Amino acid sequence: MFLGTHTPRLDDKGRLALPARFRPDLEEGLVITKGEGHSLYVFPLPEFTRITDLLRSATSTDRRVRDYNRIFFASASLETPDAQGRVTIPPKLREYAHLSKNCVVIGANTRVEVWDSTVWDLYERRAEQSFADADEEVVPGLL
Fold first, then answer.
1. Residue 63's pLDDT is what?
2. What is the model's pLDDT at position 130?
3. What b/e string do you get for 14-53 counting C-beta neighbours within 10 Å, with b at 16 or more?
4. How far from chain centre, in Å, is Cα 128?
5. Would you say residue 139 has pLDDT above 90?
6. CA-closest candidate to residue 76, choices 40, 118, 108
7. Predicted confidence band of residue 43 (pLDDT cuts 50, 70, 90)
8. CA 55 from centre of chain
9. CA 3 to CA 128: how far, in whole Å?
10. Structure pTM?
11. 30: left (phi > 0), else alpha (psi -120 to 50), else beta?
């Protein structure tokens, strides 16, 4: 499980140092792909395999499913962190996520998300207010 918010910097070679507490679950390899809101999703290999199995079972007659699969898998990059826990973010993914020097890396349960700090700040303000204003169940049976 990945938790918390971290603020690493992207170096000139497009490398990002993963938070130390995330490294043990990602050191054997990970998959980076496009995420929602112009973020990047980072999955440990076992979690990416689980999601792949779920997507494989989705109906391919639905155009939305086909489109999602194409973008999700075409943009996916298999990476292995270096000895310092850094991972290279491919240029096309950096461009998609508008990544600059200042990044935000969040734990999002079974995945890690990478955001440009400005984009994250805007998203967090909007989503945090919605979270605070919630007066009914968002996830049935949770709270």
1. 92
2. 84
3. ebbbbbeebeebbeeebbbbbbeeebbbbbbeebbeebbe
4. 18
5. no
6. 40
7. very high
8. 17
9. 16
10. 0.91
11. beta
E strands, the chain, are: 5-6, 15-17, 30-34, 40-44, 77-79, 86-88, 103-108, 111-116
Please state, in angstroms and rounded to a whole number, the distance separating the CA atoms of residues 18 and 56: 29
Task: Name the token pair of 121.
Answer: 């700040």
**Length of the chain, please?**
143
Q: Say what the pLDDT of residue 52 is.
A: 95
pLDDT digits (tens, 9 = 90+) for 58-74: 888 899 999 999 999 99
Q: Which two tokens stand for residue 39?
A: 């973020």
User: Which whole number is the average pLDDT over 99-113?
Assistant: 97
